[in-house]
Amino acid sequence: MSQTLELLGRALALDKDGHLAQPREWSRAIARELALKEGIGELADQHWTVIDFMRSVYEREGAPPSIRRITKESGIDTKSLYQLFPGGPGKKAAKIAGLPKPKSCV
């Protein structure tokens, strides 16, 4: 039986890692709700920079980028990334971006 999450009056299917099973169901409003659930709070411009970068890579390549790639190509340095998404920035940022857990995350 698959997991679901109620957000904004909708039941969203989750994968085995607790990420959205269907990335196309994602919206910025869902991202804001997921950020609150993950203890991030309000999403600032730097959060959106990371989220938008991750989604564009996913749309082009079919997989979310690694932390290393995020910090090399998004303009957000490693220290900032860990401050923006504490407790596992790759996994947490992917979850909020509505993407599967990156393969580089344990």
Looking at this protein, list some descriptive labels.
106 residues, single chain, two-stranded antiparallel ribbon, mainly alpha, Arc Repressor Mutant, subunit A, globular, 46% helix
Descriptive report:
By secondary structure, this protein is mostly helical. It has a domain at 29-96: Arc Repressor Mutant, subunit A, CATH 1.10.10. It is 46% helix and 9% strand. The chain has five helices and two strands; from the N terminus they run ββααααα. The protein has helices at residues 28-37, 45-61, 67-73, 78-84, 89-96, and strands spanning 3-7, 10-14. It has a two-stranded antiparallel ribbon. A hairpin with a 2-residue loop joins strand 1 (3-7) and strand 2. The protein is globular and about 35 Å long. The protein starts with a strand and ends in a 10-residue tail after the last helix. The mean pLDDT is 92.
CATH class of the domain at 29-96: Mainly Alpha
Mean pLDDT: 92
* Helix count, DSSP H or I runs of 4 or more residues: 5
CATH topology of the domain at 29-96: Arc Repressor Mutant, subunit A
Strand content bin: 5-15%
Major sheet details: 2 strands, antiparallel
Strand order of the largest sheet: 1-2
Separation of the first and last Cα atoms: 23 Å
Q: Which consecutive residue ranges, at least 5 long each, have pLDDT under 50?
A: none
Question: If classified by CATH, what would the architecture of the domain at 29-96 be?
Answer: Orthogonal Bundle
Order of helices and strands: EEHHHHH
- Helical fraction: 40-55%
Cα-atom Rg, whole angstroms? 13 Å
Q: What structural category do the secondary elements indicate? A: mainly alpha
**Coarse morphology:** globular
Using DSSP, what is the number of strands? Answer: 2
